[in-house]
Amino acid sequence: NDPGGRPSPSRLPVLETNANSFCSYQVEGSPEKDGRGPTIWDEFCKIPGKIADGSSGAVACDSYNRTAEDISLIKSLGANCYRFSLAWSRIIPLGGRNDPINQAGIDHYVKFVDDLLEAGITPFITLLHWDVPDALDKRYGGLLNREEFPLDFENYARVVYKAIPKCKNWITFNEPWCSSILGYSVGAFAPGRTSNRDKSPVGDSSREPWIVGHNLLVAHGRAVKVYREEFKPTQGGQIGITLNGDATYPWDPEDPADVEAANRKIEFAISWFADPVYFGKYPDSMRKQLGDRLPEFTEEERALVQGSNDFYGMNHYTANYVRHKTGTPPPEDYLGNLETLFWSKSGECIGPETESPWLRPNPQGFRNLINWLSKRYNYPPIYVTENGTSILKENDKPVEEILEDTLRVEYFDTYVKALAKAVSEDGCNVKGYMAWSLLDNFEWAEGYVTRFGVTYVDYEKDQKRFPKKSAQSLKPLFDSLIKKD
Ligand code: PNW
Fold first, then answer.
1. Do you find a cis peptide bond into 201, omega within 30 degrees of 0?
2. b/e for 68-80, b at 16 or more Cβ within 10 A?
3. Ligand 1 centroid vs 99 CA: distance in angstroms?
4. I want to staple 280 with a disulfide (CB 3.0 to 4.6 A). Which of 33, 136, 306, 360 is the partner?
5. Euclidean distance between the first and final Cα of the chain, in Å?
6. 234 C-alpha to center of ligand 1: Å?
7. Tens of pLDDT along 72-101?
8. CA distances from 54 to 61, 110, 421 (A)
């Protein structure tokens, strides 16, 4: 493939992986073991009313103590790659560049990577999947601090690259949109800041999400620069950022205002981060709507951020119909709501209900969005780093029924086939696919009620794992699609 250019359509020789994805706080448990420091999620879970079932990640899947068992599980499902995140506060418990390094935390992850490689599984490491060390939040406002946060993240990244040279695939951040919007506008995720007076802690949602997004971009740029200058020449790996984003359909495809709103919705979710990474600037639609509430890149920051992806990490779950609105939106309202989202129109529903209020399956949307990204960013290599679904009331069913997760089997079947078409018919450059997720786990504000796993975890009985039907479906699905020479 001509790097950056549109490759000629082919029969999926590109999909290296059938794999699974994970985040430290959602699976590890053991929040104090081996010297781990507290994170903003440990603190957030203590606030009454923040987590649906009043739970936390304190035990979760107990994965910190079951690495051997989990690696055998991954292997038994035929996956050849595993994405997981590190807990920064296990490596530098207080987080900062002048704080002590915790060798026990490093040793744990070094061994985990060694064991994965031994089992023939390629590790993809996410440096930060939302669980910011709490000490940094208390010390200087964490992600809100434009001077300190990027430097501390750069230092942490350097410590990790040095300690784990065998890992060749790095993701700086998972879903900065969620950290910014859910953490500093909606208030549903840690640290939960919001302008909504019915909730606390109180923040300024008219500005904070855009500042946090900006700081995450600059921190990403710094971590990439360090990797490229100090480690890539000898280690030879690749690095990128993972962004989430839903597909959109204009409510009325004949109405240019709806078409524009559908596009703007993607720009506010994805291009907010991807345009600076690929083009060195924020989208015009955002500047127009947010004015000076959206920070400006200094020349130094722009140079750090532009060109900072070796690949595009894509997390994707759902789609929406989008209808435009007019008027001046309140500044605290994160999208400025110049659009309204719908699940159905004229009796036609975008997809079946799931346990997640924000998720309805629509596989055609996946293909459309892969094409949208490929065209806008000139056919970059894409790794799908998360894709999957919850199932309506799955948690209320008897275990035998949970294990027969037909809707999830169908979700993967239709989504992966849509992805295969984006590659073989549309010429998109998708390199790998990772399902979300290997195990049922701590689903953030939804607690343990919502299950995304291809493996059932019995939280009542010692975290025992039982693969669901979907767990067995992925390997045959990929075998049927990947071209063998
Ligand atoms: C992703 N939304 O999060 C995360 O990367 C995972 O940690 C998470 O478990 C998974 O999706 C399933 O939820 C999202 O409200 C959470 O739009 C919420 C939203 C989007 C992504």
1. yes
2. eebbebbeebebb
3. 31
4. 306
5. 17
6. 35
7. 999 999 888 999 999 999 999 999 999 999
8. 17, 33, 42
The ligand 1 atom at the shortest distance from the C-alpha of residue 356 is: 13
**Residue 374 carries which side chain, given as an amino acid letter?**
S
Take atom 16 of ligand 1 and give the residue whose Cα is closest: 178
* Contact call for residues 112 and 167 (beta carbons, < 8 A): no
CA-to-CA distance for 40 and 55, rounded, in angstroms?
15
Residue linked to tokens 């001046």: 328
Q: Residues with Cβ within 6 A of ligand 1?
A: 23, 26, 174-175, 178, 244, 315, 358, 386, 436, 443, 452
Phi, psi dihedrals of residue 468, rounded to the nearest 5°:
-85, 175
Pocket test of ligand 1: the residue of 175, 180, 270, 450 to mutate, having most ligand atoms within 8 Å of its CB, is 175
Give me the DSSP letters along 215-253. HHHHHHHHHHHHIIIIIHHHH--EEEEEEE--EEEESST
Is the CB of residue 215 less than 8 Å from the CB of residue 222? Answer: no
Q: What is the ipTM of this complex?
A: 0.94
Residue count (the chain): 485
pLDDT per residue over 149-202, tens digit each?
A: 999 999 999 999 999 999 999 999 999 999 999 999 999 999 999 998 888 899
Which amino acid is it at 294?
A: L
From 358, 359, 390, 441, the mutation candidate for ligand 1 (largest count of ligand atoms within 8 A of CB) is: 358
Q: How remote is the CA of residue 242 from the centroid of ligand 1, in Å?
A: 12
